[in-house]
Amino acid sequence: MTGSTLGVNGLSKSFDGVRAIADFSCELRDGEILGLIGPNGAGKTTLFNVVTGFIAPEHGQISLKDNEITGLAPYRLANLGIARTFQDLRLIRQLSVLENVLLSFRSQPGERLGNLFFRSERSRQHEALNRQTAIELLEDTGLGDKAGESADDLSYGQQKLLSLVCCLAAEAQVLLLDEPVAGIAPEMIDKILGIIRDLPVKGKSVILIEHNLDAVMQVCDRVIFMDAGAKVSEGTPEEVRNDPKVIEAYID
Amino acid sequence: MEYLLHILILIGIYVILSVSLNLITGYTGLLSIAHAAFYGVGAYVAALMALNLHSTFLVNIICAVIVSGLLGALVGIPSLRIRDDYFVIATFAFQVITFSILNNWVSFTGGPMGLPGIPQPTIFGLQVSSHLGFLILIALFCALTLWVTRRIVRSPFGRVLKAIREDEVFAQAAGKNVAAYKIIVFVVGAGMAAMAGVMYAYYISFIDPTSFTVMESIFIISIVIIGGAGSLWGPVVGAVVLVLLPELLRFLGLPSSVAANLRQIIYGGLLVVFMMWRPRGFLGEYAFQSKEARE
Q1: CB of A49 within 8 Å of any CB in chain B?
Q2: What is the pLDDT of residues A107-140, one digit of tens each?
Q3: What letters, b where the CB count within 10 A reaches 16 and e where it falls short, cover B175-188?
Q4: Mean pLDDT (whole number) for B57-82
Q5: pLDDT tens-place string over residues B70-121
Q6: Full DSSP string of B121-159
Q7: What is the pLDDT of residue B164?
Q8: Nearest to A106 among B151, B166, B175 (CB)
Q9: Under an 8 A CB cutoff, do A90 and B170 touch?
Q10: Model confidence over B234-279: pLDDT tens digits?
Q11: Residue B283: half-sphere exposure toward Cβ, Cα within 13 Å
């Protein structure tokens, strides 16, 4: 029996009376890839926003490794080991590919003003190490030759790949990936899915929102089908795919 | 010759002001309308200390920077935690309040009559009295401002500032305490503006509230935008151009009443022209506009 990394218990959130998340509970186990599927407006992205602290829940608790983390600020949650990507693909487009990765490392001495002037040597060494790690990450994922280019000059697929690399640089235990392979070319889908599949080996757990069901079936250990903010079905990819309630929802 | 030195000294003061505002506005994307207020706070703290306590230049400049920085924290901490538009309003309010206090608290600040007779500064036993002396002093502080700014913007800290300017949500998701960064940058910028105020007070030896109005804040913003927001040397170019431009009008032989109004027209016109055709300014890498407009 493996332990739980992230626990969500009885979460609710409404927007102007519309229930976006309705008494939702789930558990992410250590080293697991959990798929989150469901129609548009089912509350999947809202769930990510609540878990990462961008939206406060009305009811319910979230815990990370048995520590209650409900209501913490996004930057605190990020520093506790939750990394995420965004459906609308956020990157700092004015900065280079390498700088985007460098930005994603946590607790950098050079990000403290005092260190720049009083401990500049330590900041510089740390930055040099991060730079090396960042370049290795980019080379491993095939973005090595793009390191110096502006993030805006990458293709859409490469940008999605880069936002995943940024999560890797964060060294988070939990990765929340919002549609990592939507709208990109098949080769890039395979590459990104390959990286995701290797994450549990590195001790990371993943929740994956994706409309591309083939992708979900390929990489996920477990799948939750969500509709109208609630959990409709949960199980192995096969079970969920064959669940009559799920089939019904997709035909509607 | 003295005239030329005077112009260079003015350019130096505006370099300090605009480079520091650029840190706030150009690199971090926060529009502050209070820069002239911090400039004024620096000038008044130094002048009042020099006149009443007869303390030395270095003590005065350190106190001026600290007082201004604390006031920056006072304005920044409540407003920067909420939203950027509140921050713009808060800085505007601080600018108006500061001017009102300088103008109305007659027993303390001299009110509209200002503070005359600020003594010449003495640094390590050396009295600065000539124009050349002041130019060297101001050049040193310009160099200090540029060095500190360069250190900041080329560091991981500066990378976070640019990330905040471009996409706050991404910066937060990357674990950066966005509000803390904004407050720190605003306090640092306010402290630097106070240095320029101290220089000005000692150089002119007389200060009054009209040097620290909203118009002055807008002038400093214009320097940053026209020079180039988000580039280290942009505001330096902007300061040279905008300080020299009205001086050139003198040589056209216009009567001073016309020249003064023409100045305002030229500044306004330049700002409009740059916003429309070259929003990045001469050297900038960042077109200052609201986040909503870019998305």
Answers
A1: no
A2: 899 999 988 888 888 899 999 999 999 999 999 9
A3: bbbbbebbbbbbbb
A4: 94
A5: 999 999 999 988 777 899 999 999 999 999 999 999 999 999 999 999 999 9
A6: PEETTEE--SHHHHHHHHHHHHHHHHHHHHHHHTSHHHH
A7: 95
A8: B175
A9: yes
A10: 999 999 999 998 888 777 777 777 777 887 888 888 888 888 888 7
A11: 15
Which residues in chain B have Cβ-Cβ distances shorter than 8 Å to A106?
A: 175
Question: From the CB of residue B16, how many other CB atoms can be counted at a distance below 10 Å?
Answer: 28
CA proximity to B98, closest of B15, B32, B23: B32
CB–CB contact A113 B157 (8 Å): yes
Neighboring chain B residues of A54 at a CB cutoff of 8 Å: 169, 172
Q: Please name the amino acid found at residue B286.
A: Y
Residues of B in contact with A51 (CB under 8 A): none
Looking at the complex, report in whole angstroms how far the Cα of residue A165 sits from the nearest Cα belonging to chain B. Answer: 12
**Short-list A198, A55, A167, B170, CA closest to A180:** A167
Nearest-by-CA chain B residue for A49: B173
| Gyration radius of chain A over CA positions | 19
Q: What percentage of chain A's residues is helix, strand, coil (to nearest 5)? A: 45, 25, 30
Q: Is A111 on the interface with B (CB under 8 A)?
A: yes
Integer Cα distance of A166 and A180 in angstroms = 13
Query: Is the Cβ pair B178, A103 closer than 8 Å?
Result: no
Tell me what percent of the residues of chain A surpass a pLDDT of 90: 79
d(CA B118, CA B134): 14
